[in-house]
């Protein structure tokens, strides 16, 4: 395990008082290490949605297991097809899905076949029912397959075309999405080996922060950060440990940090890390762990503390509700995904035309709350949600994404394209 000093020393131009968003990401990629696969668990497929695979899923079978028909129709040997002459074939039987048809089909013959039924040896093409003419005479049923419509191999599903036996159907580090669950089920596998859930403890700090249920009092605000953090973590599939609101009291803070570090892989606090803080949060972090206090060239969310407390990774987020969510999305989320063992690539940012001029100073990254919509011509437009104050949590509810104005970027003119990180499924 590298110390913070080791990580810092390896980072080009590391200055805790002036870090870029990119440098923070690089630092956290070193600090946040994946869970050991030794702690992996085998769980039932129905319990596995959202979990992260701890090892490759190797397909024990071909999927589909046999060449089969993709349509209801007539299976035939495609070498008989001609571009100019219709094909007249005698129907010698019917192959149903789920049963292998026993028999032989000779030249001049075909087999009526249902979707999913095994294609017998020698038959490689299916002419759909609705495109053939069927003549039923007392002694035989014949089919006319029109000329120039079909090619050899049409409407055939090949053995193993979805998944090949012995190949990785999914790699370790993949997230178990609904599609992934279905894919594993198609292998006949009832269980799957996943990383254990990441345990994340969180608490809010500050004497002015009221827990829900407490009577309002002058100068105090209700704790919203615990709820946004809870939601963000739960959506990521973390096991959450809620340690409440912790007063600005050294004993209470020490107890909360100790409790968190004893149980959790990661600890998230909010509040008490900015420069002018008169509270004990920073002092306690310093006392109990290996912690760095940063100023990041970003808005919102300039101050942040990171480090290690025991075996836990600490993220000391600023107090402002929007700053909490933005620093979570920009830094904590990618770091936690890494710890969860995820190797999923970061989803791409959308490009949308700004409907407004945006003031932006080069030299810091800004995250403005925006609403992306589809214009009549199909292109994407974005406008800000209005007041961008770091305490205006309603902007996070109204918007459907963050407009990311990058470090070197300057003012944005109406009609300029900007990057947007969409909230879908995350926020
Ligand atoms: P701080 O980073 O502690 O200076 O807090 C910055 C601002 O965020 C202050 O106005 C706090 O009242 C507010 N704040 C801090 N923690 C919370 C919280 N848990 N819920 C809502 N607002 C908070
Ligand atoms: Mg405070």
* Number of strand elements: 26
Roughly how much helix do the residues carry, as a percent range? 10-25%
Residue ranges: pLDDT <50 for 5 or more in a row? none
Total helical elements:
8
The share of residues in extended strands comes to 25-35%
Biggest sheet features:
6 strands, mixed
Mean pLDDT: 96
Bound molecules: adenosine monophosphate, magnesium ion
- What is the CA–CA distance across the termini? 32 Å
Give the secondary structure arrangement, pairings included:
Blueprint: H1 4-10, H2 21-31, E1 41-44, E2 57-58, E3 68-69, E4 73-76, E5 87-95, E6 109-113, E7 125-128, E8 133-136, E9 141-145, E10 156-157, E11 168-170, H3 178-185, E12 191-194, E13 199-205, E14 209-210, E15 221-222, H4 225-235, E16 239-246, H5 250-263, E17 266-270, H6 281-288, E18 290-295, E19 298-299, E20 303-309, E21 312-317, H7 321-339, E22 350-354, E23 365-374, E24 380-384, H8 394-398, E25 401-405, E26 417-422
Helix pairs in contact: 2-7, 4-7, 5-6
The chain binds adenosine monophosphate and magnesium ion.
């Amino acid at each position: 395990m590298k110390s913070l000093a080791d990580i810092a020393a390896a980072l080009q131009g590391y200055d805790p008082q002036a870090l870029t968003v990119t440098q923070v990401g690089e630092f956290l990629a070193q600090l946040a290490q994946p869970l050991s696969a030794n702690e992996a668990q085998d769980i039932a497929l129905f319990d596995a949605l959202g979990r992260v695979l701890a090892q490759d899923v190797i397909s024990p079978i071909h999927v589909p297991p046999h060449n089969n028909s993709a349509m209801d129709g007539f299976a035939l040997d495609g070498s008989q097809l001609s571009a100019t002459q219709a094909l007249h074939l005698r129907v010698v039987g019917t192959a149903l899905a789920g049963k292998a048809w026993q028999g032989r089909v000779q030249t001049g013959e075909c087999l009526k076949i249902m979707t999913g039924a095994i294609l017998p040896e020698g038959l490689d093409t299916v002419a759909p029912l609705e495109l053939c003419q069927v003549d039923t005479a007392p002694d035989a049923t014949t089919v006319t397959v029109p000329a120039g419509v079909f090619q050899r191999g049409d409407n055939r599903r090949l053995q193993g075309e979805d998944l090949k036996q012995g190949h990785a159907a999914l790699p370790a580090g993949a997230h178990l999405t609904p599609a992934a669950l279905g894919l594993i089920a198609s292998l006949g596998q009832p269980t799957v080996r996943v990383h254990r859930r990441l345990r994340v403890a969180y608490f809010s700090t500050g004497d002015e922060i009221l827990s829900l249920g407490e009577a309002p009092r002058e100068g105090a605000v209700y704790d919203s950060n615990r709820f946004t953090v809870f939601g963000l973590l739960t959506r990521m599939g973390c096991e959450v440990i809620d340690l409440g609101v912790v007063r600005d009291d050294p004993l209470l803070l020490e107890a909360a940090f100790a409790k968190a570090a004893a149980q959790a892989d990661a600890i998230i606090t909010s509040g008490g890390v900015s420069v002018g803080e008169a509270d004990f949060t920073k002092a306690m972090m310093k006392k109990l762990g290996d912690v760095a206090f940063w100023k990041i060239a970003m808005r919102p969310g300039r101050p942040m503390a990171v480090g290690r407390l025991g075996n836990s990774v600490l993220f000391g987020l600023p107090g402002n509700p929007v700053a909490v969510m933005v620093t979570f999305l920009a830094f904590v989320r990618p770091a936690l995904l890494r710890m969860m063992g995820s190797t999923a690539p970061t989803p791409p940012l959308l490009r949308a035309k700004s409907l407004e001029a945006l003031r932006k100073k080069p030299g810091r990254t800004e995250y403005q709350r925006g609403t992306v919509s589809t214009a009549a011509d199909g292109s994407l437009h974005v406008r800000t949600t209005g007041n961008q104050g770091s305490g205006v949590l309603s902007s996070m509810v109204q918007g459907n994404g963050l407009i990311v104005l990058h470090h070197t970027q300057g003012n944005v003119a109406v009609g300029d394209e900007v990057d947007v990180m969409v909230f879908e499924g995350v926020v």
